[in-house]
Structure formats: structure tokens, C-alpha cells
Design goal:
heterodimer, A: alpha/beta, Rossmann fold, 2 domains, four-stranded antiparallel β-sheet, 42% helix, B: mainly alpha, 3 domains, two-stranded antiparallel sheet, two-stranded antiparallel ribbon, 75% helix
Chain lengths: 440, 572
């Protein structure tokens, strides 16, 4: 790990030991963010990188004053954050523009709330619109604009209040690749030239390349509970080139960090890294098409059984949020192994790739039964009952001992999808019933 | 269109909150009856300007009727903005307010007209204004509930990021209400205002000429005009009145509601491409003349000014300490217990103490008769309008022409036609039990038609092509393609039609022409007769039994059907 350069300036933002938990339906607490520390000094862009569910957006909302942490302290310019602070503004993933206001009115809204003079509002709004390249669009309504132009309005609206800190919540992820790239470049140009009235930026993203492209420091988040796994400083000068070997090396390194098995035999961590140890594991919903597709791709040349995850990701055009769950499901079912940024097929995975559909289903069914305890559990319950059927609510109740309501539902649906492919058991959604019968 | 489903708020068949709400509502009704009963006797006969059947007076009468309508709408809007907001913002209040709204929605308040009339007359004895208040109140009760529901629903579904954006920019609660929550709820609200106006014409016409016991009043308006015309048996005058109301509705639609619907389209958060976009020549005109931009600028000026005048709130509302919160809960629940106990006592003292079980049985039997009528009529209307609606909906050009006409017909107050029907029944000596019934559904059948049209229009083109491609035709096409696709829409329409028919029963089962009265056996006739006789205990018994029937039918038939259709057949 590179040493983080020490900058001798007063920090804009200090986050110390922040935790966040939500009450569970059974009365317990669900920890989503654990002991997070973060310092933002002027002139820096700090990236919070992680998969969905790693608590990075929750942290951002705490900083924005939209959510209250359950523990720890947040300070903005030395003052505790106890609500949305003047001087911190935010750009949203879905733009969050008011459809009934024009571009100008959307931008002016933040200044109106500050009770500024009408002439001053007008002057500053037009300045921001000008800066962000929206000249000529002042009287347009959001619905008339493309996604890229809408997000520009989002930026102008955030900048017009002259914030010290700009928070960005996956601001480019709802845009197409080309538009996102243009917006990133424009943003970095303005930032590099110091033309924006901001001192520091916090960027939430799940796109590794975006983080390396834009940030001075990257905090890599892990899940269950959300926490900072590692911190990586990016010292490459701007503008950065994606094909630069140093850039590639950094991307590879982050992949390794994000797929690394945890150090030490900690129970919590092993549950997460090597799932399949108990029925209380949260499972991602993954299509069986993606599972067999990834196995086939890795089995075929040029990979021949072992592939570099960043390469696979760019070849298949998949974000890590899409790729990792697939790879991890394969790992959980012992069809592949994921480590050090690589995915490697196990012998059974290779056998799967070389088989016809019937044989594939047999392999899949065997592994589902052996390595996914929840599937084995459901099957056992169905076998034991005379009616060979069981209500969904029965299993939901069991799962809710381990996880939240939503996660329980998602996990059960994930198992249903896997079991349908393996033809292990049937599920009737209309009556919310599991059974061993095949539908007629 | 952005519709709010009839039961979009709670899925359970019945919760204890429903029961509590029912007790509170019925108790209030009982209280109102008793209160007005006491004030009933000393009330002098209202002296209003005598009505004239000269058609020259019709524009004036029409203006009075329309004015009453908009007064009712204004009160409904005030109610919506406060009641729905309260329900959406306070979890404590929400638990009671939402079921109350649902019960009120099911109560055929119309049967209660007499009570409200006497109550308001007694507030301002001997003045026309009291009768005006009563009429406006009736209109309010016909308009407010669905508007409040739609707004409550909108408040609950404001996208989270829009709220967060408002918070990061320090919008005050007042500003947030006007800049975010109201605009967000506006498309659904305006749609419901239109529906309310449709229903409202029926009520405004009926509430103008009222006889309760020995009290009779005629407010100048189209409704009184019609009442006088049918009393004198003047067919020409009835024709003039129908023409007038036709024009009034057309003008309101073209000058107010169509422009509004087109205008609020910009407030929609998600833009569904290809959805029906209405056109309005009036809006284009107003936009060019800058009337609307001037009005909105002025309105937001006021919002900004009032918002600035208010003190800027503290950042985070401090969470109340647990013990204070628990004490508040305790207070709230003891208050609730008191109210429920009071309501239960009222029901007992007014209703049970004065009514025999045989009377209750008899009224229930009459309600069953009305129920059979409603179901048979809905079935007949469905058999007629589903095939026609699907055909129209599949032809975009036809749908474009027919849809506004169907909506327009739904607004037409069919009680204007009742005298004609009675005239026919009397002259041809028809069976009133059968031939009065169609009047109940005359005005409400259009809801089935235009919902089915909307459903058929919403079928994606590719589904239509697929059916053609696989040669799915005839009955198979209806069974597998058309009927499932329109079912959620049809159910929504049928629910509205059924509710409206129960309400119309009060007028339709008991009608008169000159001095001849024609009556069908049913709970509507029972209520109407009790009203004319000024028999308050019978009125409240009738209304309560009718309400219970409507509520139970909603809970065990319509609501499950609605969820079934939504879950299984909604194309998203």
C-alpha cells in the first residue's frame, strides 16, 4: 500500500469511527456501517469504492446530514454535522431534478431557499449554468433534456450554492458510456483549472476505472458490515490515461483487494468470503444464463479455465456490481474459485462447460444440494412432509433470524431461481408455495 | 393517465383500525342526526324567490349551480391539502385517518342529505345561505374523499432523492410542501378533481330542491328547475334544462379541466412515452396570453414570501426522549378510547334504543334487493361495454374520439333524466321494480366503458402482433389476450360504477312525475321515503345498513378482486 501523503492543511471534513445500524423486525440491530474513518483536505477528490450494500451511500448520506450515524462523530470545518450543512451539496445518481421546474428554476432553487436577492440569484444561477455548459438551455424542462444534460443541471444546481464540499453519489452510473466519459472529462477539466467554487470532492462509485481516473485517494469498502477494507492513493498526474500501464496496475490491484479472502479466521468474515456455510447467508439474485455464460467464457480460449477479472469485466461489458455476484455464486457452488483478481474454474466447472444441457443440470443440482445449505434445507423439509409442499412464509421467518426483510426475500428468490434451473423443487408464486411437483 | 387505484393504500381485508374508524364515523352520523333532530321543529319554512320555468332564466340558474359546484370543489381542495397531509406526516394520526377516509368513501352520504340540510339550515335560520351551505356540503362529500386519497398516496410516494435534494438545499417544510409535494401530487390530484366534478353534477342537481318532513326549499339552480318542471309535468322545460347542463359541462371541460390536464402533464416525474397526451386549444390560448405563467409566478411569489416570513427551522428536529414519546402515545390512545366509547354510545342510544329487530331485518332485506339490482346491472353493463370498449381501445383513432365523450357522459347528471323515465313508466304502466333500476347505472356505466378503453389502449403493440402472428383469434383471443389485459382497468371501473349505483339508488328507486310517485322495493326507496317523512331514526337506520352493505361488499369482493387483477394481470 502506498503511503498516504500528509498534507498540512486543516481538514474540510473529519469522520471518526462512524457506525450505522438499522433495527431488525425481530428487535435486533442490523449493522450496515462499522467504524469508518475519513479525512478530506482541500484540493482532494476522495473516492468511496465498493459494491452495493457496502454502506458507502449510507456514509455519504451521513456526511450530507441526511442521515444520522448510530455512533462516531462527523465534523465539517471543525463543527459537528447535525443536519444538512451550508457548504455541502450533493449530486444525485438519478439527477433528482424537479420536473415541473425549468433548468434555471432548478438551479435557482437552492439560492431561493437561502433568501437571496432576486438579482443576485439570477446572476449566480446564470454563472453556474454557463460554467457547466448549459448555456441556451435555461428555459428547458428536464424532460426535454438527455440524461447527460440533466446531470449537468444536477451539477449546476449543486455548484450554485458555492459549496466547500461536493458530494457525488454515483453521478455517472445512470448515463451511457460515452456521455459519462464526456461529463467526467469536463468535470476534471473544470476541477483541474480551479474554476469550480469547491474545495474538496467525495465521489461514491462502484466503477473501479472511474475511481482510478478521478480520485486522489480511494477508500475500498467491503460488505457485511460495510467497512473500509483498504485505502489507496493515486498519484498519477491528470489527465490520466486508461491504457497507461501504471493505471492498469492500479485497477488490477483494486480487483485483487476486492476479491481477496479475509485475513484470519474471523467468523463474520469467513461467512462473507466463503459463503455456503450456513442458511443465514444472503444470496444475490443471479440468472442461470449468466452463470453458465461466465463458465463457458472462462473455459473457452483465450482464458482456458483461468481469467483475469478486469479483462473479463471489460470484455463482457459488465460492472463489478454485475460480475462479482455471478463469480461469487460460482465460488459458493464450488464450480470456480475467485482469488487475487482472478477467476479459476474447478474441475467440476470445466466438466459443466463441456457437457450438454441434461448433464449440466445434474452437475448443477448436485452442487446446489451439497453446497447451498438453504436449498438443501428446503429440499429436506419438502421431502419430510407428507404433502411435499411448504409455504414461503415458513422459510422467510427462518431467514429473518439472520437478516432483514428485504434480504430474506431476495435470498429466497435467488434460491428459487437456482433450484428451478437445477429442477430441484418447484415454487408457485401465486400461492407462495414450495413443492416437489412439476407443474403440469 | 396517472390513476390512483381505489384500494392503493392497505391490503388487509380489515384491520382493527377499520373497525374503530367505522364506529367513529357512524357515531358522528348518529350525533349529527340527533343534533339536527332537536333543531328540526322550530325551523320555519324557507322563503326563497319562486322559481320560474321560463328558459330565459336558465343561464342564471346554471351560473348559480356551477358556482355551488366550484365552492364545493374549493372546500374539497382545502380538506385534501390538510387532511391528507396530516395523515401522511403523522404516523399516529395516519392509523385512524386513513380508515376513516375509506369508510367515508363507502358511506352513501346522499342518503344523509336530509340531515345535513336541516343541520345547516338551523345554523342560519331562515336564510338562504344555510341552504346554500347544505348544498355545498353535499357536493363536498361527493368530491373530497377520492381527492384526499390520491394526495395522501402521492405524499407517500415522493421519490426519496427529490426529498433529499430539497433537504440539502435547506428548503423549509412550507416551501417543500409547495415546491415539491404539491407539484408531485398534482397530476393525480387533477385527475381526481375531474372525476369528482363528474360525480358532483349529480349531487348538485339533487341537493338544490329538497324536502325534509315539512321543510322544503328550492335553491335557484338547474336542479330546482328540473324539480319544478317534473312537478308540473313540463317536458319542454326538462328538455331546456338538459341542453343547458350539457353546455355547462362542455364549457367547464373545455375551458378548465382539459387545459388543466394538459398543463399538469409537466409535473409528471416519469414520462411514459406514447401515453395518451391530451390536447387543449384553450391551454394553448392561455399560454400564449401568458395568463398561466402570470398566475404561477404570482403563486410562487406568495409561497416564497410566506416561506421567508416564517422563521428558518433548526437543522434536525430533535428526537423526543423515549419517555415523552411513550406518554404521547398513552395520551393519544386514551383520547381514541374516549372517542370510540362516545361514538359507540351514540350509536346505541340513537339507533338500537329506538329500532326493533324486525325493522332491522326488513331493512336488510331491502338492502339485499338493492344489492341484487346493482350486481345484475353491473353484469349487464359489463357484457355490453367490455366488448365495445376493447374494440374502441384497439383502434387509437376511435379511442381518441370516444374516450373524452365517455368521460363527458359520466359527468352528465342522469337525475335530470329521471322524470322522463317516470313519465314513461307511468304512461305505459311498466313494472317499477324492474324499469326504475336502469336509472341507477345510467350515469355510472361510463366508468366501465372508459376504463376498459384505457386498458385496451395500454396493450403493448407487440402483444397484439404476437397474437396475430400465432393466429390467436375468436374466443381464444378474448380469453387469453383481451380480457386479462383489460381486467385491472375493468375492475377499477366496476368498483366506481358499483359505488355510484348504490348512491344513485336513493334517488332512482323513488321518483315522481306530477303527483304520481313510482317506487321500487329497495333500501334507496326506504331512505328517500323516510327523508320525505322527516323520520330521522329510519334515515339513520337506512344509511347505516346501506353503508355496512357497501363496506362489506368492498372488503370481501371488490378489494380482493382488485389485488388479484393488479397482481396477476397488470402489464407494466
Amino acid at each position: 500500500m502506498n503511503a498516504v501523503p500528509q498534507i498540512n492543511t486543516a481538514p474540510l471534513l473529519e469522520v471518526e469511527g462512524v457506525c450505522k445500524s438499522f433495527p431488525k423486525p425481530d428487535g435486533g440491530e442490523l449493522l450496515v456501517l462499522e467504524g469508518v474513518n475519513l479525512r478530506l483536505v482541500p484540493g482532494q477528490i476522495v473516492g468511496l469504492l465498493g459494491r452495493s450494500g457496502s454502506g458507502k451511500s449510507t456514509l455519504l448520506r451521513c456526511i450530507a446530514g441526511l442521515a444520522q450515524p448510530s455512533g462516531g462523530a462527523l465534523h465539517y470545518m471543525g463543527k459537528p454535522i447535525d443536519g444538512p450543512a451550508d457548504g455541502i451539496s450533493m449530486v444525485f445518481q438519478s439527477f433528482a431534478l424537479y420536473p415541473w421546474l425549468t433548468v434555471f428554476e432548478n438551479v435557482a432553487l437552492g439560492l431561493e431557499a437561502q433568501r437571496m436577492e432576486k438579482a443576485e440569484i439570477r446572476k449566480r444561477s446564470l454563472q453556474a449554468i454557463d460554467l457547466i455548459g448549459l448555456d441556451g438551455f435555461e428555459s428547458a424542462y428536464p424532460r426535454e433534456l438527455s440524461g447527460g444534460m440533466r446531470q449537468r443541471v444536477g451539477f449546476a444546481r449543486a455548484l450554485v450554492v458555492h459549496p466547500n464540499i461536493l458530494l457525488m453519489d454515483e453521478p455517472f452510473s445512470a448515463l451511457d458510456v460515452l456521455t459519462a466519459e464526456t461529463l467526467r472529462t469536463d468535470f476534471l477539466d473544470l476541477w483541474g483549472e480551479g474554476r469550480m467554487p469547491i474545495k474538496g470532492v467525495i465521489l461514491v462509485t462502484h466503477n473501479i476505472e472511474e475511481a482510478v481516473l478521478m480520485c486522489d485517494r480511494i477508500l475500498v469498502f467491503g460488505s457485511n458490515p460495510g467497512r473500509i477494507l483498504t485505502e489507496i492513493a493515486v498519484t498519477l498526474p491528470q489527465p490520466r490515461k486508461r491504457l497507461d500501464p501504471v493505471f492498469r496496475e492500479l485497477v488490477d490491484r483494486i480487483y485483487v483487494e476486492m476479491t481477496a479472502r479475509p485475513k484470519g479466521p474471523s467468523a463474520v468474515a469467513s461467512k462473507e468470503r466463503f459463503p455456503g456455510l450456513g442458511i443465514g447467508t444472503v444470496l444475490p439474485r443471479v440468472s442461470s444464463n449468466l452463470l453458465s455464460g461466465l463458465i463457458e467464457t472462462v473455459a473457452a480460449p483465450p482464458y482456458n479455465g483461468t481469467a483475469d477479472l478486469p479483462k473479463i469485466a471489460s470484455e463482457l461489458q459488465m460492472e463489478i456490481d454485475e460480475l462479482f455476484p455471478v463469480a461469487e455464486t460460482l465460488q459458493m457452488m464450488r464450480l470456480a474459485e475467485v482469488e487475487g483478481g482472478d477467476i479459476k474454474l474447478l474441475p467440476e466447472g470445466i466438466a459443466f462447460a463441456n457437457s450438454a444441457l441434461d448433464e449440466r443440470k445434474k452437475i448443477f443440482a448436485r452442487h446446489l444440494q451439497n453446497y447451498v445449505p438453504l436449498a438443501a434445507h428446503i429440499r429436506r423439509v419438502l421431502d419430510e412432509r407428507a404433502s411435499h409442499s411448504a409455504r414461503k412464509s415458513r422459510f422467510i421467518d427462518e431467514l429473518e433470524d439472520f437478516m432483514g426483510e428485504e434480504a430474506a426475500d431476495q435470498t429466497l428468490r435467488a434460491v428459487i431461481s437456482l433450484a428451478r434451473y437445477a429442477e430441484a423443487f418447484a415454487y408457485d408464486d401465486e400461492h407462495e408455495t414450495f413443492s416437489l411437483e412439476n407443474p403440469t | 393517465m396517472n390513476r390512483t387505484g381505489p384500494f392503493a393504500f392497505v391490503r388487509d381485508l380489515a384491520t382493527r383500525w377499520d373497525l374503530i374508524a367505522a364506529i367513529v364515523v357512524i357515531g358522528l352520523l348518529a350525533f349529527a342526526t340527533e343534533a339536527s333532530h332537536g333543531l328540526f321543529e322550530p325551523l320555519a319554512k324557507l322563503k326563497a324567490t319562486p322559481m320560474s320555468l321560463d328558459p330565459i332564466n336558465l343561464p342564471f340558474y346554471a351560473a348559480r349551480t356551477t358556482l355551488r359546484m366550484f365552492a364545493g370543489l374549493f372546500v374539497s381542495l382545502l380538506f385534501t391539502l390538510t387532511y391528507a397531509t396530516w395523515a401522511a406526516k403523522s404516523p399516529r394520526a395516519e392509523k385512524l385517518l386513513v380508515p376513516i377516509l375509506d369508510i367515508l368513501q363507502s358511506v352513501p352520504i346522499f342518503g344523509f342529505l336530509s340531515v345535513t340540510v336541516v343541520f345547516f339550515l338551523s345554523l342560519v335560520p331562515g336564510r338562504v345561505i344555510g341552504a346554500e351551505f347544505a348544498a355545498i356540503f353535499v357536493i363536498f362529500t361527493s368530491q373530497a374523499w377520492n381527492m384526499a386519497f390520491s394526495f395522501y398516496q402521492s405524499l407517500r410516494t415522493v421519490p426519496y432523492e427529490l426529498i433529499e435534494a430539497a433537504e440539502t438545499f435547506h428548503l423549509t417544510a412550507w416551501m417543500r410542501f409547495w415546491q415539491l409535494e404539491v407539484p408531485f401530487g398534482l397530476p393525480a390530484l387533477i385527475w381526481n378533481v375531474m372525476m369528482s366534478m363528474s360525480g358532483g353534477w349529480f349531487f348538485v342537481v339533487a341537493s338544490e330542491a329538497v324536502t325534509v318532513g315539512s321543510t322544503t326549499f328550492d335553491l335557484p339552480g338547474i336542479g330546482s328547475y328540473i324539480a319544478l318542471a317534473s312537478q308540473q309535468g313540463n317536458l319542454r322545460a326538462i328538455g331546456w334544462a338538459i341542453l343547458t347542463i350539457f353546455l355547462v359541462i362542455l364549457v367547464c371541460d373545455q375551458l378548465i379541466f382539459r387545459p388543466l390536464v394538459v398543463w399538469v402533464d409537466r409535473f409528471r416525474v416519469e414520462q411514459e412515452p406514447g401515453s395518451w397526451l391530451p390536447q387543449s386549444w384553450a391551454l394553448t390560448m392561455m399560454m400564449r396570453s401568458r395568463i398561466i405563467s402570470g398566475l404561477t409566478a404570482g403563486f410562487y411569489g406568495i409561497v416564497r414570501w410566506t416561506s421567508w416570513a416564517l422563521p428558518r427551522p433548526k437543522r434536525i428536529i430533535p428526537r423526543l426522549p423515549q419517555h415523552v414519546n411513550r406518554r404521547m402515545d398513552l395520551l393519544w390512545f386514551s383520547l381514541l378510547v374516549l372517542v370510540v366509547a362516545w361514538a359507540a354510545w351514540k350509536i346505541a342510544s340513537v339507533l338500537i334504543a329506538t329500532t326493533s329487530w324486525s325493522e332491522i331485518g326488513q331493512v336488510s332485506l331491502l338492502a339485499c334487493l338493492t344489492m341484487v339490482r346493482v350486481f345484475v346491472l353491473i353484469a349487464i353493463a359489463s357484457v355490453i361495454w367490455i366488448p365495445i370498449g376493447v374494440r374502441i381501445g384497439l383502434n387509437p383513432r376511435a379511442a381518441e374520439i370516444v374516450q373524452p365523450i365517455a368521460q363527458f357522459l359520466a359527468a352528465f347528471p342522469t337525475n335530470l333524466l329521471f322524470p322522463l323515465a317516470v313519465y314513461a313508466i307511468v304512461s305505459w304502466k311498466l313494472n317499477s321494480d324492474i324499469w326504475l333500476s336502469p336509472l341507477m347505472i345510467l350515469g355510472t356505466q361510463w366508468y366501465i366503458l372508459f376504463n376498459v378503453i384505457a386498458g385496451a389502449t395500454a396493450i403493448p403493440n407487440e402483444l397484439k402482433y404476437a397474437a396475430e402472428n400465432f393466429r390467436v383469434r375468436g374466443w381464444l383471443w378474448w380469453k387469453r389476450v383481451a380480457l386479462p389485459a383489460v381486467l385491472p382497468y375493468y375492475v377499477t371501473g366496476a368498483i366506481t360504477a358499483s359505488g355510484g349505483s348504490w348512491n344513485a339508488a336513493v334517488l332512482a328507486e323513488f321518483a315522481s312525475w306530477r303527483s304520481t310517485t313510482v317506487e321500487a322495493h329497495g333500501i334507496g326507496a326506504y331512505i328517500e321515503k323516510a327523508t320525505t317523512a322527516g323520520d330521522f331514526h329510519r334515515i339513520i337506520l337506512g344509511v347505516v345498513v346501506m353503508s355496512l352493505f357497501v363496506i362489506v361488499i368492498n372488503r370481501i369482493l371488490w378489494r380482493p378482486l382488485y389485488y388479484f387483477a393488479e397482481r396477476k394481470y397488470r402489464l407494466t
